[in-house]
Amino acid sequence: MSQYEAAHQLGEQFHAFLAAGDWDGIRTLLTDDATWTLPGDNTISGTAEGADAVVARAKKIASYGLNFELLHILVSRENMALSLHNTARRGEVRLDEYLSTVCRLRDGRIASIETYLSDVPGMNAFFV
Known about the structure:
The model has no long low-confidence stretch (mean pLDDT about 95). About 35% of the residues lie in helices and about 45% in strands. The chain has four helices and six strands; from the N terminus they run H-H-E-E-H-E-E-E-E-H. It has helices at about 5-20, 25-30, 50-60, 120-125, and strands spanning about 30-40, 45-50, 65-75, 80-90, 95-105, 110-115. Strand 5 and strand 6 (about 110-115) form a beta hairpin. By secondary structure, it is α+β, with helices and mostly antiparallel strands. It is globular and about 45 Å long. The longest helix is centred in the first third of the chain and has 18 residues, at about 5-20. Strands 2-1-6-5-4-3 form a six-stranded mixed sheet.
């Protein structure tokens, strides 16, 4: 399997585990010192440091009932990104955002994640 195929497969696994709520599965894809940085000023913003904190962040995001629609898996020479369309509704508040979740890889695992969003104000309003 080429490095590009391996990175693509890692992206597929990450999305599948996230959509299924398989937190142990996500943990197997992360380095122990993994981080996840999200923009905004809300309950999920900032940087989660360490694999357990990254898994906790994924759980928290999923607890809001998001639909994680995978649009594309993108690979570079050394890394991988997920292009997603996330939607959810909480009462009258609606989330409808496009994002790229950029994963830096180390030794075949995810070492850091940085998420880029199309609608940071909408994210702030939804994740209170």
